[in-house]
Amino acid sequence: MFNPESFIEEVKPQILKEVREEKILAAISGGVDSTTAAVLMYKILGKQLLPIMIDTGFLRKDEARKVKDMLKDILPLQVVGKSEEFISALEGISDAEEKRKKFRDLFYSTLSAIAKENGIKYLVQGTIAADWVETQGGIKTQHNVLVQLGINTEETWGFKVIEPLADLYKDEVRALARYLGLPKEISERQPFPGPGLLIRVVGKLTREKLEIEREVNDVVENELKDMGYSQYFSVIIDSQKSLDNIISMEANVPVYVYNTRATGVKGDVRSYGKIASIPLIDDYEKVREIVQKITKYDVTHVGMIINDKKDGKYSIGIRAVLTQDFMTADFAKIEISKLQEIGEKIMEINKEIKEVFYDVTSKPPATIEYE
């Protein structure tokens, strides 16, 4: 059983011995992991810590303002605006791993410049166990996993990384956040990946897709909050797809396959497979059986169509899962009427939205995020 008090007693002397009188930079993404790591270090080191949040342009709607406001009485967060630099550098990239690695290089180059300006040689970040397990397993490159991959951060960027939460899982991080006195809005906050909406614009990144996804994700989070799900969000993909006759015969329903691929995990290794769609079926046990048949093929995510119309360039996916440790997860069985209500609101956001589907794939064979 995880004990936050014992954990702090264990890590505090290690941190003080390592850092001594040096200043230290804390990178906050807006998610619970990085925020908890920063607050823990601030409790231990006080004014030695410089907490910053880089606005990469891939944050949720009004994210930087909301996070700074939530933390105003807890630690002095500074927001550094770099959205144009990040979006310009990543625009047009399609491959999930290329996106993650490019983002990582930009992110740490930016942090390196800030560290050098302030004479800082240490960086604290919120890497947790699930991050490095997935990266070392080759499933997907988490942008904040560096040392575990043999990357020498002192040689590459000029700072040494401290990861106080690296042995913890998500439920333990939340328990620590509550113990540290963080408000519920932070301790129970929706997990948000470091690259943010970059990896929820699945496939080729364009500014139009990014802005639509930012608005859609805001609707999904507002509609599904307080329903007890572990994580919920939206994704946007290009709507082009074609009927797969072979998979349709196996599944005994029409199965369409999109031109866009998404990350999954099969046999404990990464699978960069296809995204498929099936018609609306108001029976989740039957849906589960169909999905198991479909994912025997080169498919990692299956979406059940909730709303659609004739024209439009984009498909929106709604994702909601239940999990304890984020290493495995099951899709949430949301009432179809609720999904259709959300779908109708999404369809009104932009005329280029052709359809909305609900992701009915567990982890494995899907990952929770698409990229």
Describe, in plain words, how this protein is organized in 3D:
There is one protein chain. With 371 residues, the protein is of the alpha/beta class. The protein contains 13 helices and 13 strands. The protein has helices at 4-19, 32-45, 63-70, 83-90, 96-117, 129-136, 153-156, 170-179, 184-187, 207-224, 245-251, 284-294, 336-347, and strands spanning 24-27, 49-55, 78-81, 122-124, 160-162, 231-238, 241-243, 256-266, 269-278, 299-308, 314-322, 330-331, 353-359. The strands form two sheets. Strands 6, 7, 8, 9, 10, 11, 12 and 13 form an eight-stranded mixed beta sheet that branches. Strands 3-2-1-4-5 form a five-stranded parallel beta sheet, with helices on both faces. α3 (63-70) links the parallel β2 (49-55) and β3 (78-81). It is globular, with a radius of gyration of 21 Å. Residues 136-145 have low confidence and may be disordered.
